Amino acid sequence: PPAFNVARVRADFPILGLTVAGKPLVYLDNAASSQMPQPVIDRLVRYQSTEHANIHRAVHYLSETATAAYEAARTRLQRFINAREAREVIFTSGTTEGINLVAHGWGRQNIRAGDEIILTVLEHHSNIVPWQMLALEKGAILRVVPINDAGELLVDEYEALFNERTRLVSVGHVSNALGSINPVKQMIAFAHARGVPVLVDGAQAAPHLAVDVQDLDCDFYAFSGHKMCGPTGIGVLYGRAALLEAMQPFKGGGDMIHTVTFEKTTYAPIPNKFEAGTPPIAAAIGLGAAVDYLSSIGMPAIAAHEHELLRYATEHLSALPGVRLMGTAKDKAAVLSFAVQGIHPHDMGTLLNQEGVAVRTGHHCAQPLMVRLGVVATSRASFAFYNTLADVDALVAGIRSVQKVFA
Ligand code: PMP
């Protein structure tokens, strides 16, 4: 790919040209949702203008066109994460649905009273609540891997949690609140040596790192389109084919069956078994275009630029008096959670918005982590490859001017 050029990349994102409160938009809420480049917008317009119909159903031209585009998107996603086969890629509505699919389709069959599921204190609520619901239903137990003060998982403690009742590990690849990159490959190898499958919540990793599910050797990998330049309402659950084949479907309906009588239904092969009803066809095609776009820039180039943003932002934020950074893991994605002395995160977010700077404030759907950090909320700046060092300068200037308001 050509050398990374942030100005040229930014020109692909029409929304980055907005002004907010009379100031140029500085968009630093990418961990919540990223923005969409023109090639993805164009692909959606082309689909809606000239290719739209329901898929897997009719022999007419448009249905065949839409089906081919939808299945081509699946193949794009397969390549993006280096899955062995396209049928290991299930389109979901997002990470949340992917994890719930496994909790129902795998968990209800395989988890019994007294069984243990290992999570970490860094997890997003979507990788806690589905397991808690399953544990409540089955009488199973959740075990939680702790972190050190830098926000790094304590791998020794993780290994010590294993026993003969351990049935599953479900772990985030990258923390949405602190940016910590967890040593998932090492954690998976340890779990597999004990016959325990591993689900990885990749919502914050797929947009920022080159993900290779075969190299990780994970059993499941879930992520969301809207955090990686794609549309909302679409995501992927990767699953090892043998596991998916053995699992129960999560939702019943059309397109997931082989035959139906009132006595008995037999299910379609994967992936259709897990895609009941009309899927988000346009969104899946849009996500296919999004991963093409990311690949054309190159995930290593994206990671390198974001690393430079992280280095620069860490240096400048930690130099600000009264600002405390949370999460200083050695291996870290470009997410900065911070507290500013005497200023509530909500006020910080509101006043930064008046400077055109978009950050997220709150608990980041990670309340157990907030308890561990001893805060109720943080302000969070999360970067994408289209952010610039000037965006960091704008954030720093914004924080200083908010501090003056409260001085
Ligand atoms: N896991 C992590 C680590 C996340 O950051 C998010 C989104 N904030 C999710 C899961 C849930 O993703 P979605 O809302 O797209 O289902």
Write up what this structure looks like:
It is a single chain. The protein has 407 residues and is of the alpha/beta class. Helix content is 40%, strand content 17%. The chain contains 14 helices and 17 strands. The chain has a seven-stranded mixed β-sheet, with helices on both faces. A four-stranded antiparallel β-sheet has the order 13-14-17-16, covered by helices on one side. The model has no long low-confidence stretch (mean pLDDT 97). The site of 4'-deoxy-4'-aminopyridoxal-5'-phosphate has 13 residues, from helix 4.
Task: Draw up the topology in text.
Layout: H1 6-10, E1 19-20, E2 23-24, E3 26-27, H2 38-50, H3 61-81, E4 89-92, H4 95-110, E5 116-120, H5 129-138, E6 141-145, H6 155-160, E7 166-172, H7 184-193, E8 198-201, H8 213-216, E9 220-224, E10 235-239, H9 241-246, E11 257-260, E12 265-267, H10 281-297, H11 299-318, E13 323-326, E14 335-340, H12 345-354, E15 357-358, E16 360-362, H13 367-373, E17 378-382, H14 389-406
Parallel strand pairs: 3-15, 5-6, 5-7, 7-8, 8-9
Antiparallel strand pairs: 1-2, 4-10, 9-10, 11-12, 13-14, 14-17, 16-17
Helix pairs in contact: 2-10, 3-10, 4-5, 11-14
Bound molecules: 4'-deoxy-4'-aminopyridoxal-5'-phosphate.
Distance between the ends:
49 Å
Assembly level: single chain
Label the overall shape: globular
Structural class: alpha/beta
Small molecules held by this entry: 4'-deoxy-4'-aminopyridoxal-5'-phosphate
Total number of beta strands = 17
Largest sheet: 7 strands, mixed
Kindly report the spatial arrangement of strands forming the biggest sheet: 4-10-9-8-7-5-6
| Total helical segments | 14
| Overall pLDDT level | 97
Beta-strand fraction estimate: 15-25%
Rounded to an integer, what's the Rg over CA atoms? 22 Å
Portion in helices? 40-55%
Report the uncertain regions: none
